[in-house]
Specification:
The longest helix has 19 residues. A six-stranded mixed beta sheet has the order 7-4-6-5-9-8. The chain has a six-stranded mixed beta sheet with strand order 16-13-17-21-20-18, with helices on both faces. Strands 22-25-24-26-28 form a five-stranded mixed barrel. It is of the alpha/beta class. The protein contains eight helices and 28 strands. The structure holds adenosine monophosphate and magnesium ion. The site of adenosine monophosphate has 18 residues, from helix 4.
Length: 416
Protein backbone atom coordinates (compact mmCIF):
# COMPACT_ATOMS: atom_id res chain seq x y z
CA UNK A 1 0.00 0.00 0.00
CA UNK A 2 1.41 3.41 -0.92
CA UNK A 3 1.24 6.71 0.94
CA UNK A 4 -1.16 9.49 0.03
CA UNK A 5 1.72 11.71 -1.10
CA UNK A 6 3.11 8.99 -3.37
CA UNK A 7 -0.33 8.39 -4.87
CA UNK A 8 -0.79 12.08 -5.66
CA UNK A 9 2.68 12.22 -7.17
CA UNK A 10 1.87 9.28 -9.49
CA UNK A 11 -1.41 10.90 -10.56
CA UNK A 12 0.15 14.27 -11.33
CA UNK A 13 3.11 12.73 -13.15
CA UNK A 14 0.83 10.71 -15.43
CA UNK A 15 -1.58 13.53 -16.25
CA UNK A 16 -0.95 15.71 -19.31
CA UNK A 17 -2.71 18.92 -20.37
CA UNK A 18 -5.19 18.36 -23.20
CA UNK A 19 -5.05 20.00 -26.62
CA UNK A 20 -6.31 23.49 -27.45
CA UNK A 21 -9.59 24.84 -28.74
CA UNK A 22 -10.88 28.25 -29.73
CA UNK A 23 -13.70 29.76 -27.71
CA UNK A 24 -15.67 32.98 -27.98
CA UNK A 25 -15.06 35.50 -25.23
CA UNK A 26 -18.55 35.11 -23.82
CA UNK A 27 -17.67 31.48 -23.09
CA UNK A 28 -14.13 32.01 -21.86
CA UNK A 29 -14.65 32.68 -18.15
CA UNK A 30 -12.67 30.22 -16.01
CA UNK A 31 -10.87 28.68 -18.98
CA UNK A 32 -7.07 28.61 -19.15
CA UNK A 33 -5.51 30.79 -21.80
CA UNK A 34 -3.22 28.97 -24.24
CA UNK A 35 -1.73 31.93 -26.14
CA UNK A 36 0.14 35.11 -25.18
CA UNK A 37 -1.94 38.24 -25.62
CA UNK A 38 -0.30 41.41 -27.00
CA UNK A 39 -1.62 44.97 -27.28
CA UNK A 40 -2.93 45.85 -30.76
CA UNK A 41 -2.47 49.62 -30.15
CA UNK A 42 -1.49 52.08 -27.45
CA UNK A 43 -3.98 52.54 -24.63
CA UNK A 44 -5.07 55.25 -24.42
CA UNK A 45 -4.42 55.62 -28.16
CA UNK A 46 -3.79 59.39 -27.72
CA UNK A 47 -3.56 61.90 -24.87
CA UNK A 48 -7.06 62.48 -23.53
CA UNK A 49 -8.84 64.15 -20.67
CA UNK A 50 -9.45 62.59 -17.26
CA UNK A 51 -12.00 65.27 -16.35
CA UNK A 52 -14.83 67.41 -17.65
CA UNK A 53 -13.62 71.01 -17.94
CA UNK A 54 -11.48 73.12 -20.26
CA UNK A 55 -8.43 72.32 -22.34
CA UNK A 56 -6.01 75.24 -22.15
CA UNK A 57 -2.41 76.27 -22.65
CA UNK A 58 -0.52 76.33 -19.35
CA UNK A 59 1.02 79.64 -20.44
CA UNK A 60 -2.45 81.23 -20.42
CA UNK A 61 -3.42 80.24 -16.85
CA UNK A 62 -0.04 80.83 -15.22
CA UNK A 63 -0.51 83.09 -12.18
CA UNK A 64 -4.34 82.95 -12.24
CA UNK A 65 -6.02 83.68 -8.84
CA UNK A 66 -9.49 84.34 -7.40
CA UNK A 67 -8.93 88.11 -7.75
CA UNK A 68 -7.10 87.95 -11.02
CA UNK A 69 -8.53 85.05 -13.07
CA UNK A 70 -7.36 84.02 -16.53
CA UNK A 71 -10.08 84.84 -19.06
CA UNK A 72 -10.05 82.74 -22.25
CA UNK A 73 -12.34 82.66 -25.24
CA UNK A 74 -14.03 79.29 -25.81
CA UNK A 75 -13.51 78.32 -29.44
CA UNK A 76 -14.01 74.56 -29.67
CA UNK A 77 -15.31 71.39 -28.03
CA UNK A 78 -13.64 67.99 -27.54
CA UNK A 79 -15.82 65.12 -26.43
CA UNK A 80 -15.17 61.37 -26.18
CA UNK A 81 -15.35 59.99 -29.70
CA UNK A 82 -15.11 63.49 -31.23
CA UNK A 83 -12.64 65.07 -33.68
CA UNK A 84 -9.22 66.51 -32.84
CA UNK A 85 -9.63 70.29 -32.40
CA UNK A 86 -7.18 73.16 -31.88
CA UNK A 87 -6.66 75.94 -29.33
CA UNK A 88 -4.71 79.09 -29.94
CA UNK A 89 -3.19 81.53 -27.43
CA UNK A 90 -5.78 83.03 -25.04
CA UNK A 91 -8.42 80.49 -26.04
CA UNK A 92 -9.80 77.29 -24.54
CA UNK A 93 -11.94 74.32 -25.60
CA UNK A 94 -14.72 72.60 -23.73
CA UNK A 95 -13.45 69.12 -22.96
CA UNK A 96 -15.15 66.02 -21.53
CA UNK A 97 -13.71 62.87 -19.95
CA UNK A 98 -12.13 60.82 -22.72
CA UNK A 99 -12.04 63.76 -25.17
CA UNK A 100 -8.80 64.14 -27.17
CA UNK A 101 -6.46 66.88 -25.91
CA UNK A 102 -6.71 69.63 -28.56
CA UNK A 103 -3.66 70.58 -30.58
CA UNK A 104 -1.89 73.40 -28.76
CA UNK A 105 -3.39 72.54 -25.34
CA UNK A 106 -1.30 71.00 -22.58
CA UNK A 107 -3.46 71.21 -19.44
CA UNK A 108 -7.06 70.46 -18.46
CA UNK A 109 -8.79 72.62 -15.85
CA UNK A 110 -11.70 70.83 -14.19
CA UNK A 111 -15.08 72.49 -14.52
CA UNK A 112 -15.37 73.03 -10.73
CA UNK A 113 -12.51 75.61 -10.84
CA UNK A 114 -14.09 77.71 -13.60
CA UNK A 115 -17.02 79.96 -14.47
CA UNK A 116 -18.44 80.60 -17.94
CA UNK A 117 -19.87 83.94 -19.09
CA UNK A 118 -20.63 85.04 -22.67
CA UNK A 119 -18.53 82.37 -24.31
CA UNK A 120 -15.61 83.15 -22.04
CA UNK A 121 -14.19 80.92 -19.35
CA UNK A 122 -12.84 82.40 -16.10
CA UNK A 123 -10.14 80.28 -14.47
CA UNK A 124 -9.47 81.09 -10.83
CA UNK A 125 -6.29 79.18 -10.10
CA UNK A 126 -3.10 78.00 -11.70
CA UNK A 127 -2.72 74.24 -12.23
CA UNK A 128 0.43 72.26 -12.89
CA UNK A 129 1.23 71.88 -16.57
CA UNK A 130 -0.20 68.56 -17.80
CA UNK A 131 -2.88 68.36 -15.11
CA UNK A 132 -5.79 65.95 -15.75
CA UNK A 133 -4.25 64.58 -18.94
CA UNK A 134 -4.17 60.80 -19.42
CA UNK A 135 -1.13 60.26 -21.60
CA UNK A 136 -1.05 58.12 -24.73
CA UNK A 137 0.11 54.60 -23.84
CA UNK A 138 -0.26 55.29 -20.10
CA UNK A 139 -1.96 51.93 -19.57
CA UNK A 140 -0.01 49.93 -22.16
CA UNK A 141 1.82 50.36 -25.46
CA UNK A 142 1.26 48.64 -28.79
CA UNK A 143 3.06 45.27 -28.75
CA UNK A 144 3.20 44.97 -24.93
CA UNK A 145 2.61 41.46 -23.54
CA UNK A 146 -0.62 41.92 -21.59
CA UNK A 147 -1.58 38.37 -20.50
CA UNK A 148 0.65 35.33 -20.56
CA UNK A 149 -0.48 31.89 -21.70
CA UNK A 150 -1.44 29.77 -18.69
CA UNK A 151 -3.55 32.42 -17.00
CA UNK A 152 -6.99 31.37 -15.84
CA UNK A 153 -9.43 33.86 -17.31
CA UNK A 154 -11.32 36.08 -14.88
CA UNK A 155 -13.52 39.06 -15.72
CA UNK A 156 -10.50 41.42 -15.75
CA UNK A 157 -8.61 39.30 -18.31
CA UNK A 158 -11.75 39.01 -20.44
CA UNK A 159 -11.99 42.82 -20.40
CA UNK A 160 -8.40 43.08 -21.68
CA UNK A 161 -9.06 40.50 -24.40
CA UNK A 162 -12.03 42.52 -25.53
CA UNK A 163 -10.08 45.78 -25.46
CA UNK A 164 -7.45 44.30 -27.79
CA UNK A 165 -10.20 43.12 -30.15
CA UNK A 166 -9.95 39.33 -29.62
CA UNK A 167 -13.43 37.87 -30.17
CA UNK A 168 -12.02 34.35 -29.86
CA UNK A 169 -9.07 32.94 -27.94
CA UNK A 170 -7.20 29.67 -27.68
CA UNK A 171 -7.74 27.87 -24.39
CA UNK A 172 -7.06 24.33 -23.16
CA UNK A 173 -9.82 21.79 -23.74
CA UNK A 174 -11.85 20.63 -20.78
CA UNK A 175 -11.73 16.88 -20.15
CA UNK A 176 -14.83 14.80 -20.75
CA UNK A 177 -15.22 12.89 -17.53
CA UNK A 178 -17.35 9.74 -17.69
CA UNK A 179 -19.07 8.55 -14.53
CA UNK A 180 -20.02 4.89 -14.17
CA UNK A 181 -21.93 3.98 -11.04
CA UNK A 182 -21.68 0.33 -9.98
CA UNK A 183 -23.58 -1.83 -7.52
CA UNK A 184 -26.52 -4.28 -7.59
CA UNK A 185 -28.16 -2.27 -4.83
CA UNK A 186 -27.94 1.15 -6.51
CA UNK A 187 -31.03 2.94 -7.84
CA UNK A 188 -30.95 5.95 -10.14
CA UNK A 189 -33.24 8.91 -9.56
CA UNK A 190 -36.87 7.99 -10.02
CA UNK A 191 -36.41 4.22 -9.97
CA UNK A 192 -38.91 2.61 -7.58
CA UNK A 193 -37.65 1.00 -4.37
CA UNK A 194 -38.52 -2.70 -4.48
CA UNK A 195 -36.26 -4.11 -1.80
CA UNK A 196 -35.10 -2.92 1.59
CA UNK A 197 -31.48 -3.43 0.56
CA UNK A 198 -31.66 -0.97 -2.30
CA UNK A 199 -29.79 2.33 -2.03
CA UNK A 200 -30.57 5.49 -3.95
CA UNK A 201 -27.40 6.80 -5.56
CA UNK A 202 -25.72 9.86 -4.17
CA UNK A 203 -22.32 9.44 -5.78
CA UNK A 204 -23.49 9.75 -9.39
CA UNK A 205 -24.68 13.30 -8.87
CA UNK A 206 -22.27 14.45 -6.17
CA UNK A 207 -19.40 13.44 -8.45
CA UNK A 208 -21.15 14.96 -11.48
CA UNK A 209 -21.26 18.26 -9.59
CA UNK A 210 -17.67 17.97 -8.41
CA UNK A 211 -16.57 17.47 -12.01
CA UNK A 212 -18.40 20.66 -12.98
CA UNK A 213 -16.78 22.56 -10.10
CA UNK A 214 -13.37 21.30 -11.15
CA UNK A 215 -13.93 22.57 -14.70
CA UNK A 216 -14.49 19.22 -16.44
CA UNK A 217 -17.41 18.12 -18.61
CA UNK A 218 -19.29 15.36 -16.79
CA UNK A 219 -20.94 12.58 -18.76
CA UNK A 220 -23.11 10.00 -17.02
CA UNK A 221 -22.13 6.71 -18.62
CA UNK A 222 -24.68 4.69 -16.72
CA UNK A 223 -25.21 2.17 -13.94
CA UNK A 224 -23.77 -1.30 -13.92
CA UNK A 225 -24.72 -4.39 -11.94
CA UNK A 226 -22.06 -6.41 -10.17
CA UNK A 227 -21.78 -9.08 -12.84
CA UNK A 228 -19.19 -9.52 -15.59
CA UNK A 229 -21.57 -9.09 -18.53
CA UNK A 230 -23.06 -5.81 -17.41
CA UNK A 231 -19.72 -4.45 -16.18
CA UNK A 232 -18.11 -5.25 -19.53
CA UNK A 233 -20.95 -3.72 -21.52
CA UNK A 234 -21.15 -0.46 -19.54
CA UNK A 235 -17.37 0.01 -19.45
CA UNK A 236 -17.31 -0.15 -23.25
CA UNK A 237 -19.42 3.03 -23.28
CA UNK A 238 -16.52 4.94 -21.71
CA UNK A 239 -14.25 4.95 -24.75
CA UNK A 240 -14.88 8.54 -25.82
CA UNK A 241 -13.97 9.98 -22.42
CA UNK A 242 -10.69 11.54 -21.32
CA UNK A 243 -11.20 10.42 -17.75
CA UNK A 244 -13.23 7.46 -16.50
CA UNK A 245 -14.53 7.57 -12.95
CA UNK A 246 -16.21 4.50 -11.52
CA UNK A 247 -17.78 4.42 -8.09
CA UNK A 248 -18.04 1.27 -6.01
CA UNK A 249 -16.83 -2.22 -6.75
CA UNK A 250 -13.18 -1.47 -6.23
CA UNK A 251 -12.64 -3.14 -2.87
CA UNK A 252 -11.73 -6.78 -2.12
CA UNK A 253 -15.25 -8.30 -2.15
CA UNK A 254 -16.37 -11.16 -4.45
CA UNK A 255 -18.44 -8.65 -6.42
CA UNK A 256 -15.78 -6.00 -6.82
CA UNK A 257 -15.07 -6.42 -10.52
CA UNK A 258 -14.06 -3.01 -11.69
CA UNK A 259 -10.31 -3.26 -11.41
CA UNK A 260 -10.06 -6.42 -13.51
CA UNK A 261 -12.56 -5.30 -16.11
CA UNK A 262 -11.08 -1.89 -16.88
CA UNK A 263 -7.90 -3.77 -17.76
CA UNK A 264 -9.80 -6.21 -20.01
CA UNK A 265 -12.21 -3.81 -21.68
CA UNK A 266 -10.24 -0.57 -21.91
CA UNK A 267 -6.64 -1.74 -21.59
CA UNK A 268 -6.05 0.29 -18.44
CA UNK A 269 -2.59 0.06 -16.85
CA UNK A 270 -3.30 0.11 -13.14
CA UNK A 271 -0.60 2.25 -11.52
CA UNK A 272 -1.79 1.88 -7.96
CA UNK A 273 -4.53 0.31 -5.91
CA UNK A 274 -5.00 1.06 -2.22
CA UNK A 275 -3.62 4.10 -0.48
CA UNK A 276 -2.80 4.61 3.21
CA UNK A 277 -5.62 7.05 3.71
CA UNK A 278 -8.97 7.17 5.46
CA UNK A 279 -11.51 7.33 3.98
CA UNK A 280 -10.82 6.07 0.47
CA UNK A 281 -8.30 3.28 1.04
CA UNK A 282 -9.30 1.04 -1.90
CA UNK A 283 -8.93 3.75 -4.58
CA UNK A 284 -7.40 2.59 -7.87
CA UNK A 285 -5.68 4.70 -10.52
CA UNK A 286 -4.48 3.91 -14.01
CA UNK A 287 -3.87 5.22 -17.52
CA UNK A 288 -5.25 4.06 -20.86
CA UNK A 289 -5.77 5.13 -24.48
CA UNK A 290 -3.40 5.02 -27.47
CA UNK A 291 -0.75 7.07 -25.70
CA UNK A 292 -1.86 6.35 -22.16
CA UNK A 293 -3.19 9.89 -22.17
CA UNK A 294 -6.51 8.96 -20.56
CA UNK A 295 -7.04 8.44 -16.85
CA UNK A 296 -8.98 5.94 -14.80
CA UNK A 297 -10.00 6.41 -11.19
CA UNK A 298 -11.74 3.58 -9.36
CA UNK A 299 -13.42 5.47 -6.56
CA UNK A 300 -14.79 3.62 -3.51
CA UNK A 301 -18.56 3.52 -3.16
CA UNK A 302 -18.93 4.99 0.31
CA UNK A 303 -20.32 8.44 -0.34
CA UNK A 304 -17.88 10.38 1.84
CA UNK A 305 -14.91 8.38 0.61
CA UNK A 306 -16.00 9.16 -2.94
CA UNK A 307 -16.12 12.90 -2.29
CA UNK A 308 -12.82 12.98 -0.39
CA UNK A 309 -11.02 10.99 -3.07
CA UNK A 310 -12.42 13.30 -5.72
CA UNK A 311 -11.28 16.49 -3.97
CA UNK A 312 -7.78 15.23 -3.18
CA UNK A 313 -6.98 13.10 -6.20
CA UNK A 314 -9.34 13.58 -9.14
CA UNK A 315 -9.72 17.36 -9.00
CA UNK A 316 -5.99 18.06 -9.36
CA UNK A 317 -5.88 15.77 -12.41
CA UNK A 318 -8.84 17.49 -14.07
CA UNK A 319 -7.29 20.87 -13.38
CA UNK A 320 -3.97 19.79 -14.85
CA UNK A 321 -5.70 18.47 -17.97
CA UNK A 322 -7.45 21.80 -18.49
CA UNK A 323 -4.15 23.66 -18.35
CA UNK A 324 -4.25 25.01 -14.80
CA UNK A 325 -1.03 25.45 -12.85
CA UNK A 326 -2.53 25.68 -9.36
CA UNK A 327 -4.18 22.30 -9.21
CA UNK A 328 -4.60 21.49 -5.52
CA UNK A 329 -7.20 22.68 -3.06
CA UNK A 330 -5.52 25.21 -0.78
CA UNK A 331 -4.60 24.10 2.72
CA UNK A 332 -4.44 26.23 5.85
CA UNK A 333 -3.46 25.81 9.50
CA UNK A 334 -6.41 25.73 11.91
CA UNK A 335 -7.01 25.04 15.60
CA UNK A 336 -8.92 21.80 16.00
CA UNK A 337 -11.82 22.44 18.35
CA UNK A 338 -12.53 19.57 20.78
CA UNK A 339 -9.52 17.54 19.72
CA UNK A 340 -9.57 14.14 18.03
CA UNK A 341 -8.60 10.62 19.08
CA UNK A 342 -8.21 7.37 17.16
CA UNK A 343 -6.92 3.89 17.89
CA UNK A 344 -4.50 3.40 15.02
CA UNK A 345 -2.30 5.91 13.29
CA UNK A 346 -1.34 3.92 10.20
CA UNK A 347 -3.24 6.00 7.68
CA UNK A 348 -3.48 9.66 6.88
CA UNK A 349 -7.02 10.54 7.92
CA UNK A 350 -9.18 13.29 6.50
CA UNK A 351 -11.84 14.35 8.99
CA UNK A 352 -14.72 16.51 7.90
CA UNK A 353 -14.56 19.90 9.58
CA UNK A 354 -16.39 23.16 9.38
CA UNK A 355 -14.02 26.11 9.29
CA UNK A 356 -14.54 29.49 10.84
CA UNK A 357 -12.30 32.53 10.69
CA UNK A 358 -12.08 33.98 14.24
CA UNK A 359 -9.92 36.67 15.87
CA UNK A 360 -7.43 33.91 16.78
CA UNK A 361 -7.26 32.61 13.22
CA UNK A 362 -8.97 29.62 11.68
CA UNK A 363 -10.86 27.19 13.91
CA UNK A 364 -11.84 23.74 12.60
CA UNK A 365 -14.83 21.95 14.12
CA UNK A 366 -15.25 18.27 13.36
CA UNK A 367 -18.76 17.08 12.63
CA UNK A 368 -19.95 14.50 15.19
CA UNK A 369 -20.10 11.39 13.01
CA UNK A 370 -17.01 10.72 10.92
CA UNK A 371 -17.91 7.40 9.19
CA UNK A 372 -17.13 7.23 5.47
CA UNK A 373 -20.81 6.46 4.86
CA UNK A 374 -22.10 9.53 6.73
CA UNK A 375 -22.82 11.89 3.86
CA UNK A 376 -24.61 14.38 6.09
CA UNK A 377 -21.16 15.06 7.62
CA UNK A 378 -20.18 16.59 4.28
CA UNK A 379 -23.11 18.99 4.39
CA UNK A 380 -21.61 20.63 7.47
CA UNK A 381 -18.07 20.60 6.15
CA UNK A 382 -15.93 22.86 4.04
CA UNK A 383 -12.57 21.33 4.87
CA UNK A 384 -10.77 18.07 5.53
CA UNK A 385 -8.68 18.17 8.71
CA UNK A 386 -5.56 16.07 8.23
CA UNK A 387 -4.63 13.68 11.02
CA UNK A 388 -1.11 12.71 10.03
CA UNK A 389 0.29 9.17 9.87
CA UNK A 390 1.61 8.12 13.30
CA UNK A 391 -0.66 10.50 15.18
CA UNK A 392 -3.42 9.02 17.35
CA UNK A 393 -4.43 12.12 19.24
CA UNK A 394 -4.83 15.81 18.51
CA UNK A 395 -5.48 17.96 21.60
CA UNK A 396 -8.23 20.54 21.85
CA UNK A 397 -6.96 23.75 20.21
CA UNK A 398 -3.93 22.08 18.62
CA UNK A 399 -3.04 23.20 15.09
CA UNK A 400 -3.75 20.86 12.19
CA UNK A 401 -3.54 21.26 8.43
CA UNK A 402 -6.92 21.59 6.75
CA UNK A 403 -7.56 21.11 3.04
CA UNK A 404 -10.19 23.68 2.07
CA UNK A 405 -12.46 22.24 -0.59
CA UNK A 406 -15.08 24.95 -0.34
CA UNK A 407 -13.91 28.55 0.05
CA UNK A 408 -17.40 30.00 0.33
CA UNK A 409 -17.15 30.16 4.15
CA UNK A 410 -14.97 33.23 3.56
CA UNK A 411 -18.19 34.91 2.41
CA UNK A 412 -19.40 34.71 6.00
CA UNK A 413 -19.69 31.19 7.38
CA UNK A 414 -21.73 28.15 6.46
CA UNK A 415 -25.50 28.42 6.65
CA UNK A 416 -27.17 26.17 9.22
P1 LIG B 1 -18.55 -0.58 -2.60
O1 LIG B 1 -17.40 0.35 -2.73
O2 LIG B 1 -19.17 -0.97 -3.89
O3 LIG B 1 -18.16 -1.78 -1.77
O4 LIG B 1 -19.64 0.20 -1.78
C1 LIG B 1 -19.42 0.61 -0.46
C2 LIG B 1 -20.68 1.19 0.16
O5 LIG B 1 -21.04 2.34 -0.54
C3 LIG B 1 -21.87 0.27 0.09
O6 LIG B 1 -22.58 0.36 1.31
C4 LIG B 1 -22.68 0.82 -1.05
O7 LIG B 1 -24.05 0.54 -0.94
C5 LIG B 1 -22.40 2.28 -0.98
N1 LIG B 1 -22.49 2.87 -2.30
C6 LIG B 1 -21.90 2.41 -3.41
N2 LIG B 1 -22.20 3.17 -4.48
C7 LIG B 1 -23.03 4.15 -4.01
C8 LIG B 1 -23.70 5.24 -4.64
N3 LIG B 1 -23.58 5.47 -5.94
N4 LIG B 1 -24.45 6.05 -3.86
C9 LIG B 1 -24.56 5.81 -2.54
N5 LIG B 1 -23.97 4.81 -1.90
C10 LIG B 1 -23.20 3.95 -2.63
MG1 LIG C 1 -20.52 -2.29 -4.59
Amino acid sequence: MISFEEAVRIIVENTKPLGLEKVFLDNALGRVLAEDIYADRDNPPADNSGMDGFAVRYEDIKGATEENPAVLEIIAESKAGGELVKVKPKTAAYIYTGGLIPEGADTVVQKELTKVEDNKVFIFQELKKGSNIRPQGGDYKKGDLLIKAGKKLRPAEIGILSSVNKPTVYVYQQPRVGILTTGDEILDLGEPVEKLSQIRTSNTYSIYSQVLEAGGQPVIIGFSKDNPEDTQKKLSYAKSCDVLLTTGGVSVGEYDLIKDFVVKVLGVDILFWKVKQKPGKPVAFGVWGAEKEKLFFGIPGNPVAAMVVFENMVKPAIRKMRGESRIFNPSIKAKLSGGYKRKKGERLEFIRVSLELTDEGFVARPFGKQGSNILTGMVFANGFGMIEVGKTEVKDGEDIKVVVFDKSFMDGGLDD
